[in-house]
Write a structure and sequence with these properties.
There is one protein chain. This protein has helices at 11-22, 41-50, 68-73, 111-123, 140-145, 164-176, 194-205, 215-218, 222-228, 237-243, 252-259, and strands spanning 3-7, 26-29, 53-56, 81-87, 98-99, 126-130, 132-134, 151-152, 161-163, 182-185, 212-213, 233-234. The protein contains eleven helices and twelve strands. The strands form four sheets. It has a six-stranded parallel beta sheet with strand order 2-1-3-4-6-10, sandwiched between helices. It starts with a strand and ends with a helix. The chain has 260 residues and is α/β, with parallel strands linked by helices. 40% of the residues are buried. Helix 1 (11-22) crosses helix 6 (164-176) and helix 7 packs parallel to helix 11.
Length: 260
């Protein structure tokens, strides 16, 4: 039986674990909802010794910039397949242009993430670069229902996104296809503005969209302002060609409708 060990059983990793278990895999993980304590080195190494596959969804430490998984256990992976959930933030700002896996990294605001991304690639991992993640309990529908949706007056600003179930299917496609290690963008087919997604959510819920505002008027946090500081469209062609992956939700319209 194949065995997956996951560092960090967070939102996306839970969907990956669920899909693997449905396919007959044994899965163990660290994290608040996992069954192994990350700080228990002996327990982690026992699991790594058994694992045929290892996946990390743990981001680099904000203060030190170090990747805690590689820093603590990078020498214990053995010959397992290993993957890393990274971010398309490694590409930085592209002024709305398309970027693929050949684009330079390390020019954006997430330098620690770019460094971790590069380290995992050097290690021979499958690195999955993810844009904005949405899914059950975490979508524009939820923000509209909670009265927290906004529209920012920034013409030409676009983002890429991916449904969490498509992340899981992309990771599994990489495993099942015996694809070569390297970077893979897992995003949908239609980069779009945040406003367009909010407007579609409002349409589905039968309510009017919030007014257009500046970032100051919307009272956005520094983190949210950083989100708007970068403008790019993320291409998913490599994942489709090499992994044989197709997103079940090719645009935010299908994704939101499924969540409704």
């Amino acid at each position: 039986m194949p065995q997956m060990f996951i560092f960090g059983l967070g939102y996306s990793a839970k969907y990956i674990a669920r899909a693997l278990r449905s396919a007959g895999w044994s899965v163990s993980a660290t994290g608040s909802d996992g069954d192994v304590d990350f700080s228990d080195a002996a327990a982690v190494r026992r699991e790594l010794a058994k694992a045929t596959h290892v996946l990390s969804s743990v981001p680099p430490d904000r203060e030190s910039g170090l990747d805690p998984v590689l820093d603590s256990y990078g020498h214990d992976f053995g010959r397992a397949w290993y993957g890393y959930l990274s971010s398309t933030g490694v590409y930085g700002d592209a002024d709305g242009a398309w970027v693929d896996e050949s684009a330079p990294t390390g020019t954006g605001r997430r330098s620690a993430r770019s460094d971790a991304d590069a380290l995992w690639l050097e290690l021979g991992a499958h690195v999955f670069r993810l844009p904005g993640i949405y899914g059950p309990g975490r979508s524009a529908l939820d923000r509209v229902r909670a009265g927290k949706a906004h529209r920012i007056d920034m013409p030409g600003q676009v983002f890429s996104r991916v449904h969490v179930e498509d992340i899981a299917s992309g990771v599994i496609a990489a495993i099942e296809s015996v694809a070569p290690a390297g970077a893979y963008n897992l995003g949908d087919d239609l980069p779009a503005s945040h406003n367009a997604v909010t407007e579609e959510a409002c349409r589905l819920l039968g309510v009017g969209p919030p007014p257009l505002q500046t970032m100051d008027e919307a009272g956005l946090s520094e983190m949210a302002r950083g989100f708007y500081a970068e403008n790019r469209r993320v291409a998913n062609g490599k994942a489709k060609r090499v992994l044989g992956w197709e997103p079940r939700y090719p645009t935010f319209r299908e994704g939101l409708a499924s969540l409704l």
